[in-house]
Amino acid sequence: MSDQIVIEVAFATPERQMIISIKVKNGITVKEVIELSGILNEFHGISLDDHPVGIFGKITTLDHPLRDRDRVEIYRPLIADPKEIRRKRAAADNNIKKNR
Questions:
Q1: Can you tell me whether residue 72 is helix, strand or coil?
Q2: pTM assigned to the model
Q3: Domain coordinates of the chain in residue numbers?
Q4: How do residues 1-51 score in pLDDT, each as one tens digit?
Q5: Which residues contact 20 (CB under 8 A, 6 or more apart)?
Q6: Which of the four, 24, 38, 54, 72, has the lowest number of CB atoms within 10 Å?
Q7: Quick one: average pLDDT of 52-67?
Q8: What is the CATH architecture of 4-98?
Q9: In this structure, are residues 59 and 72 in contact, taking their beta carbons and an 8 Å threshold?
């Protein structure tokens, strides 16, 4: 087993997205790779206390150990709840159909 692995760290805003590929020591954690990647310097609003993180779309913890080729994602807080938006859209569509 190699002592080096390759990890991607990803973050996006509506205006900009960035994926940083970094070679790191095997056994590194999510928090460590985020800090080493430099992405926190690129997006000054990221707070690891407030932003959830995941690996390939699945929420995880900052102390989770990484495997070769994992993609760490830092998630932004949602502005609106997607379920609530769908519920309102469906209600509006139903009202339109009733008024025809």
A1: strand
A2: 0.76
A3: 4-98
A4: 579 999 999 999 889 999 999 999 999 999 999 999 999 999 988 989 889
A5: 8, 9, 10, 37, 38, 39
A6: 38
A7: 96
A8: Roll (3.10)
A9: no
